[in-house]
Design brief:
single chain; globular; alpha/beta; binds 2-amino-3-ketobutyric acid; Rossmann fold
């Protein structure tokens, strides 16, 4: 990868991936795009407004930038997709097929995130094997399974070097997530700092698979830089880091915010989505095929989240004091 175009770059994963890639490959090598106007989100990278549903605009932007890799992150997450399934199908599938088509024409490598949501209630829960039953019961999950197959198709028939990861819930402080079922595990930190209290939209005992953002970013880079020959499950490697319930996360937070309180008001939609997913992914294939290892466990992740959020608050305070 020498010249990388990112779609959905203003999102939770895109923001941090763009800055990591700028540091690694140089700012001139990265074009961060999003459907939102760059004035609203871009800081120091080359940035452009791009709607990946517009095939001609996508083709022109890839050609104009001379991209040799597209990291396609523009997608609707699980809870939002359930609220508007048709819009989710349209963005998640038509955006992806456009990216794959342009990549086939321009000879680009492609990264596409899949998700634990590509599994459903019929999948073994703990752990979900790499290769197993995939009958999700959410529109988001349906688009993730179809997306994995579409990437396989473009690889097998048209030679596109497409690669992908099945992410668990991602936790980070730089940019909030939007519309996911695992979002509680991000919201809870700001609530702990600002209010000392959080009302969780999942039951206390809902065990879910999670990963801290620095591990997720490293996984993308390592997979994209891995030699292609050893990759059997190239478009959908299970990866995992930690599993916890809201009650266990609250306990870990109390080590930093003594007296933090949590109560529970389960949202039927998001609870049913969470209950339909495995509690843990088996990532042994990723470990064997390209050397994947996670670094962050629950206590390190919680400590680093508070370090990052406190630094953000201090910077914001210094910014407003200087105005
Ligand atoms: C969501 O909750 O929808 C996402 C995911 C697990 O893919 N974080």
């Amino acid at each position: 990868m020498k010249r990388i175009l990112i779609t959905g770059a203003a999102g939770q994963l895109g923001t941090e991936l763009a800055s990591t890639l700028q540091a690694r490959y140089g700012p001139a090598a990265i074009l961060a795009t999003d459907i939102r106007d760059p004035a609203e989100w871009a800081t120091r990278s080359q940035a452009a407004r791009l709607d990946c549903l517009d095939l001609d605009a996508l083709r022109d932007t890839v050609a104009g930038f001379r991209a040799d890799a597209v990291l396609h992150l523009a997608a609707v997450l699980s809870a939002t997709a359930e609220a508007n399934p048709l819009a989710a199908w349209k963005l998640n599938m038509n955006g992806l097929v456009n990216v794959l088509q342009v990549a086939a024409e321009a000879g680009c490598r492609v990264f596409v995130p899949s998700s634990i949501a590509a599994f459903g209630p019929g999948t073994p829960r703990d752990p979900a094997p790499q290769s197993t039953v995939q009958r999700p019961t959410t529109m988001y999950g349906v688009t993730k399974v179809a997306g994995e197959l579409l990437c396989d198709y473009y690889h097998d028939r048209l030679g596109v070097d497409a690669r992908g990861l099945r992410f668990p819930g991602l936790i980070s402080y730089a940019t909030p997530p939007g519309g996911g079922t695992t979002d509680y595990a991000v919201e809870i930190f700001r609530a702990a700092l600002c209010e000392g209290h959080y009302t969780c939209f999942l039951r206390a005992d809902t065990r879910m698979d999670m990963m801290y953002m620095p591990d997720a970013i490293r996984a993308v880079v390592e997979l994209m830089e891995a030699p292609p020959d050893g990759l059997t499950y190239r478009n959908a490697f299970n990866i995992t880091a930690m599993q916890f319930t809201p009650a266990e996360l609250a306990e870990a937070i109390r080590a930093h915010v003594p007296g933090f309180e949590i109560d529970y008001d389960p949202d039927p939609l998001r609870q049913s989505i969470a209950d339909s997913w495995p509690a843990r992914l088996d990532d042994s294939e990723a470990r064997e095929q390209w050397g994947w290892r996670h670094h962050y466990e629950l206590p390190d992740m919680v400590a680093d989240m508070f370090r990052g959020l406190n630094a953000q608050t201090a910077r914001a305070g210094a910014g407003s004091a200087g105005r």
